[in-house]
Amino acid sequence: MKNRIKVYRALRDLTQEALADQLGVTRQTILAIEKGKYDPSLELAFRISKLFKVPIDKMFFYETEPENQPLFEE
What we know:
74 residues, mainly alpha, 434 Repressor (Amino-terminal Domain), two-stranded antiparallel sheet, 2 strands, 5% strand
């Protein structure tokens, strides 16, 4: 599964450490999720989406879906 955490994090000018602190996880967890080496639990995925106020299907998507989907709903 791919994600756009790094994109949304950059839009908010958040470091991996700051995001990890807000979510109650380690920076290594955020790094692993961003790199696609670790899929977050469903609970963590929802918390990430809620924090960025983005629908979960805009934050996380399968590798077969195009990455150039719009970042925000229109």
